[in-house]
Design the sequence.
């Protein structure tokens, strides 16, 4: 590579399946034809990782993909052993993510964590020229621990996909659709969603829960129950048995629509059919992609007022769950986590159910705000400025 452009290695896999992959693919795409940056992926980019990315976009980044894959092979990135990279490396830093054997001329540690015991990182945070977070909650934890400056760049959405639009007309207009997204785990609080929906659906026969809870790691969710009486199981195919789970906990499975794993590009069509979205997470290291995507599509969103979600809570663009109690079993690794009140969730759903105009107003204002402040284009621009400032 002889170009004078800054070489930047995103040291993780790019795809359309989960947070890190979606982040990487969007940043890579915005940098693919940038005059100042040559983006490289830490893993080879294959066609299946592009999901349903439209052919025009694939064409626009195809040369960058070829170059990235060639450089990975030529430089030996991903092979065992340590290596030096002549450029900037952006490293993923978090629990369960071992330090990378790659060391760049400059190194950015992108720190994403829900577990606030970050002592396991102490031995290698010093290797990074800059510490980067995606929420002020994470940044504050890092600052107190390291006494270093920590940058914050918020994650975004693609406004050309996630935007308000007409409903298909195929869904039953007499139903009230409630969306819940994110992989099943204690911090995402699907147990609180189900407890609230159980009560709400008893009051309203038209209530439908649309659950996008599947992930590439179903085995991690097996046995989860939180405050529910019965735990989640895997079916005969090793996938989450969501319908059995809701039935075992007193909810009519006919009132639950299960969304299986789909490429991120298909989510807007689902979100635009929704009346509300709900995310009472006990902790969010960033600001929750499902929440921002729903807001961008003009859906009124109910969110727990804790951790990284505080960076999304602005007057008039969402409905925060103000009551945040102590999380059951909370310890020193869960500083800042919050337990939303099920009663408040139910009453908030009731308010949005009754007040159609307020629901529409919140969704409309959210879509405008997200488009102005939380896009992947903005994210890539801010990250580029950070990278070039280190040169």
Sequence:
């Amino acid at each position: 590579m002889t170009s004078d452009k800054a070489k930047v290695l995103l040291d993780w896999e790019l795809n359309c399946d989960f947070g890190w992959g979606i982040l990487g693919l969007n940043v890579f795409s915005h940098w693919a034809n940038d005059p100042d940056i040559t983006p490289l992926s830490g893993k080879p980019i294959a066609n299946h990782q592009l999901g349903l990315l439209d052919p025009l976009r694939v064409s626009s980044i195809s040369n960058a993909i070829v170059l990235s894959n060639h450089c990975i092979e030529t430089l030996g990135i991903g092979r065992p052993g340590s290596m030096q990279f002549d450029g900037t490396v952006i490293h993923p830093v978090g629990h369960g993510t071992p330090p990378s054997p790659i060391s760049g001329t400059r190194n950015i540690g992108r720190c994403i964590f829900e577990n606030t015991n970050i002592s396991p990182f102490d031995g290698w945070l010093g290797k990074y020229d800059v510490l980067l977070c995606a929420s002020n909650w994470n940044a504050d934890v890092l600052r107190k621990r390291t006494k270093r400056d920590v940058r914050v760049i918020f994650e975004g959405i693609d406004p050309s996909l996630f935007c308000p639009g007409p409903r298909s007309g195929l869904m039953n207009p007499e139903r009230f659709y409630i969306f819940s997204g994110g992989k099943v785990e204690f911090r995402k609080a699907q147990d609180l969603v189900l407890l609230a929906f159980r009560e709400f659906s008893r009051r309203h026969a038209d209530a439908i829960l649309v659950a996008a809870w599947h992930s590439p790691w179903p085995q991690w969710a097996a046995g989860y129950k939180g405050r529910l009486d019965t735990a989640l199981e895997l079916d005969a195919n090793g996938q989450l048995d969501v319908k059995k789970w809701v039935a075992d906990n007193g909810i009519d499975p006919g009132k639950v629509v299960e969304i299986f794993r789909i490429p991120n590009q298909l989510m807007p069509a689902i979100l635009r059919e929704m009346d509300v979205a709900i995310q009472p997470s006990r902790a969010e290291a960033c600001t929750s992609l499902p929440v921002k995507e729903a807001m961008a599509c003009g859906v009124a969103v109910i969110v727990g007022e804790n951790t990284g979600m505080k960076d999304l809570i602005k007057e008039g663009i969402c409905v925060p769950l103000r009551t945040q109690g102590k999380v059951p079993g909370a310890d020193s690794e869960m500083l800042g986590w919050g337990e939303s009140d099920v009663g408040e969730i139910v009453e908030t759903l009731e308010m949005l159910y009754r007040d159609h105009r307020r629901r529409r107003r919140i969704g409309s204002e959210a879509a405008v705000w997200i488009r102005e402040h939380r896009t992947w284009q903005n994210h890539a621009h801010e990250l580029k400025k950070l990278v070039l400032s280190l040169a």
The chain has two domains: 6-156+375-389, 176-373. Residues 32 and 141 are 33 Å apart (CA to CA). The chain has eleven helices and 14 strands.
